[in-house]
Write a structure and sequence with these properties.
The chain is mainly β and 389 residues long. The protein contains two helices and 22 strands. A seven-stranded mixed beta barrel has the order 1-2-4-5-7-6-3. The protein has a five-stranded mixed beta sheet with strand order 15-17-19-21-22, with no helix packed on it.
């Protein structure tokens, strides 16, 4: 850069004192111009006017130097501009070919950059001149470091192979491996070895593996797939059944039992202690009673109504037209309440064995009620009628 004032060519006589200031600024521009910096990836440099007023042109003079303290760590491609002078131009590493990128600029580090008109295919740009710890591709025991990436290398005798893995160790912690090991598993999973111990072969995958004899389990245990096994002296056989208990409840049995029935059905037991009665055992002693909910057989006005005593011991129906009452198909006994409707008709009995007296006569009078006692024993069915008015 040529000085703006050549004193040898000045005319004789008094000259403006400002020429000295201009000359000092020109001399300062030949050194490193201190600047303040702002931004992380797009960095704006502002020359510090209180130091001196530098002579910065657009474009700057070739190899003109600027210094600054980084206010942030770069996270991507880096560009630099001189405030009020240039636009943003690429910042290159010391190889003058690779644009500075993520982490090339570190917060609180002092940098010196120079302007180069030939950079970026003669579009102009800035180049890092210091610090030299940003040197491109240093060689360390055969390792190549490029943009914070280390390829196959040996460090302190340890070989680090190429890959994209991440090894993270907490501060002041030590990881020691005494044998050649391979770890595999599901991403994001954690192996907690607690206070230490010995892991056996296939400790977490083999169905035949138990870490120690008679282990003690704490907390809630989940058993996935198990073959015939004994737990606390109880044997659980192979199967796909599900045994479910409500929290805080106890199931106690004192004999060998087999429970059978229809899937998804529910058996509700009494609210007090009791003995269960059987349907196929003779001479059972009954000391309790039962309350019935009578079964509504609907309105009968035609066709045949076959009594089914197995449906309920107490039944009722409405007579609203002539119909046939047929004897039960199975042995049993029940009471049938008949209530006459407005169109009550004659009831014809079918399949019953009766004597000359079957009780009170049935009528068709509206609202009259009759209680029929129906019994079938050893395939012989009979009935009696009791009028209730």
């Amino acid at each position: 850069m040529a000085p703006r004032t050549v004193y040898a060519t000045l005319a004789d006589g008094l000259q403006p004192v400002g020429l000295w200031d201009q000359s000092f600024a020109d001399m300062g521009s030949l050194g490193v111009i201190p600047c303040t910096a702002s931004g992380s990836n797009a960095i704006t440099l502002t020359p510090i006017a209180s130091v001196f007023s530098p002579n910065v042109l657009n474009p700057p003079n070739p190899n003109q130097l600027f210094s600054f303290v980084a206010t942030a760590t770069s996270t991507g491609a880096v560009t630099v501009s001189i405030a009020g002078v240039t636009g943003f131009l690429n910042l290159y590493r010391m190889d003058a070919a690779t644009q500075a990128a993520s982490r090339d600029i570190q917060i609180k580090v002092t940098y010196v950059v120079s302007f180069g008109s030939a950079l970026n295919s003669a579009a102009g740009g800035f180049q890092i001149q210091s610090p030299i710890n940003n040197e491109i591709n240093p060689i360390i025991s055969g390792a190549t470091i490029s943009n914070s990436t280390i390829t196959t290398s040996t460090y302190n005798g340890n070989t680090w192979t190429a890959g994209s893995g991440i090894l993270t160790i907490a501060a002041l912690k030590t990881l020691t491996a005494s044998n050649t090991l391979t770890f595999s598993g599901t991403d994001g999973s954690t192996l907690n070895v607690g206070t230490g111990g010995t892991l056996g072969s296939n400790a977490f995958t083999s169905t035949a593996y138990a870490p120690i004899a008679n282990p003690t389990f704490t907390g809630t245990q989940t058993l996935t797939t198990a073959l015939t096994t004994t737990l606390n002296g109880n044997t659980f056989t192979t199967g796909t059944y599900t045994l479910t208990g409500t929290a805080g409840k106890t199931f106690t049995f004192s004999n060998t039992l087999t429970l059978a029935g229809t899937d998804s059905t529910t058996m509700t037991f009494p609210s007090t202690n009791a003995n269960i009665a059987a349907l196929n055992i003779a001479d059972q002693t009954m000391s309790g009673g039962a309350n019935f909910t009578s079964s509504n057989q609907g309105t009968k006005s035609s066709g045949t109504f076959t009594v089914d005593c197995g449906a309920c011991a107490l039944q009722f129906a409405t007579n609203n037209g002539a119909f046939t009452l047929a004897a039960p198909s199975n042995d049993g006994a029940c009471l049938l309440l008949i209530t006459n409707g407005a169109s009550a008709g004659t009831i014809t009995f079918s399949g019953f064995t009766v004597g000359s007296n079957t009780g009170d006569a049935l009528t068709t009078t509206n609202t009259s009620k009759f209680l029929l006692s129906i019994t079938r024993v050893n395939s012989i069915a009979t009935y009696t009628v009791k009028a209730l008015q």
